[in-house]
Amino acid sequence: MSEDFRRQGYLSEHEIEIKTLEGINEFLETLGRSLKEFHLSSVPMNLFDSDKFTKEYNHERKIEVSEADLLSIEKLNDDQRHAFNIITEKIYSSSSGTYFIDGPGGSGKTFLYRALLADVRSRGYIALAVATSGVAAALLPGGRTAHSRFKIPIDIDGKTKCKISKQTTLAKLLLSAKLIIWDEISMARRQIIEALDDILQDLTDCDNPFGGKVVVFGGDYRQIAPVVVGGKKEDTIDASFASSLLSRNV
What we know:
Blueprint: H1 2-6, H2 13-30, H3 45-61, H4 67-72, H5 78-92, E1 97-102, H6 109-122, E2 126-131, H7 134-137, E3 144-145, H8 146-149, H9 169-176, E4 177-183, H10 190-204, E5 214-219, H11 233-239
Parallel strand pairs: 1-5, 2-3, 2-4, 4-5
C-alpha cells in the first residue's frame, strides 16, 4: 500500500506513512477494530482521525438541499404535515422519538422523508438517510443502504452487531446526527434494527430506544417481508420488526 502512495511522487515519507496507516485503519474499522488497539502510541492517529471525521462530516453537511425539497414542506397534505410537525418538534427540542411512517407505494412517504431531510439539513444539522434496498436508498438525497451505513454484517443471527467502535469516525457521525431515516423497514430483519439500537445506546451511553435519537422508520407491511432462507411462515413473522420489542416504542 505504501508503494502506491510513493508512486504518486509528491508525498514526503512522513505523509506516505500517515496515508498508509490511514488506509490500514479504514480497513480495520470495517471489522470494528482500530490501530489504537495495537498500542502504536508513536503514530499520530489524531491527525487522520480528525481529518477523516471532518471530511465525512462536511460531506454530510454539503449534501445539496434542492429548492424543490424545501418547497415541498409547504405542499405536505394534512397527514404528512401532522407527522412532519411532530417529528421536527422532537428534533429541535433535542428530545428522543421513534416513528413509523406506514403506507403503500405512492402514498407519499418519500415526499415526507425528503421534506424532513431538507428541513434538517437546511439548518446545518446532520440527517442520515438509509434504506433496506439500494433502489429505495437512491431516492433519498445522500441515501445509503442500511448495511453500508451502519456496518451491518451479511450473515444475520440473534447476535448480530453493527461493526462500529467508539473510536471510529462513523461513531462520531452517528453521535452528531439529529435525524435518522430508514425506509423499507418492513423488508429488514428485526435483528439488524435491534443491532442499530444496541450500538446507538452504547455510543450515547443512553438506554432510551436508539440512544435517544430521533429515528423515523417507513415501510409497508403489505408488501415484501423479510427474507429468511429456508424459513417457514412463523420464521418470517418472527424476523419482522413488528415482532421486535422495539416496535412497542414506535
